[in-house]
Amino acid sequence: MIPELKKTTEHKMHRSIDALKADLAKVRTGRAHTGILDHVTVEYYGSPVPIAQVANITLIDARTIGVQPWEKPMIGKVEKAIRDCDLGLNPASQGEIIRVPMPALTEERRKELIKVVKHEGEGAKVAVRNLRRDANGHLKDALKAKTISEDDERRAQDDIQKLTDKAIVEIDKLLAQKEQELMQI
């Protein structure tokens, strides 16, 4: 029972960290990267699909993304979808390719993005702590039901605390890395 609880708690903590990584990837820095368009959807024959399913996305240079739709009629739709997403991008089509230049970030915008990043990190830490609380609750219930001994409960709580500490350190590393990325000009 205890090893299974530790395993599921650790798995859920990893999922929280992965969710944070995905959220941080959406916060754009001054550099271009293709992942920034991952959550943009395009109307394709009546249904919304991710942009990567209707176009080839490449980096033209450090500050420009190239989007090349596989079907010519999709150029306008893809361009509109990129413009309408909440990333503040201004795509321009040139023949069969859409160029998406990444605007430079102002100092004020960088500081706003750092606040957003810290908020995301705090949310991830809260999620990890909630997982610790839930796991400790299960241990207390097992102790009350007399399915585990007090020593086993204490050891398991220590192990879960170690998992929590490890996850928090990982989150702090990710936040520091993203902050550093945002402050680079």
Automatic annotation (TrEMBL):
- Which residues are in coiled coils? none
Q: Known Gene3D superfamilies for this protein?
A: 3.30.1360.40, Ribosome-recycling factor
Intracellular or extracellular location(s): Cytoplasm
Q: Does the keyword Cell membrane apply?
A: no
Limits of the Ribosome recycling factor domain:
20-183
According to its UniProt record, what is one Pfam family this protein matches? Answer: RRF
The terms under GO molecular function for this entry are: ribosomal large subunit binding
Q: Which CDD domains match?
A: RRF (cd00520)
Its primary localisation, in coarse terms, equals cytoplasm
Listed under GO biological process in this entry are:
cytoplasmic translational termination
- Please provide, in alphabetical order, the Gene Ontology terms of the cellular component aspect for this entry: cytosol
Q: Which UniProt keywords apply?
A: Cytoplasm, Protein biosynthesis
Q: Does the keyword Ribonucleoprotein apply?
A: no
According to its UniProt entry, what is the function of this protein? Responsible for the release of ribosomes from messenger RNA at the termination of protein biosynthesis. May increase the efficiency of translation by recycling ribosomes from one round of translation to another.
Q: Indicate the family of this protein.
A: Belongs to the RRF family.
What is the recorded name of this protein?
Ribosome-recycling factor
Q: Which organism is it from?
A: Zoogloea ramigera
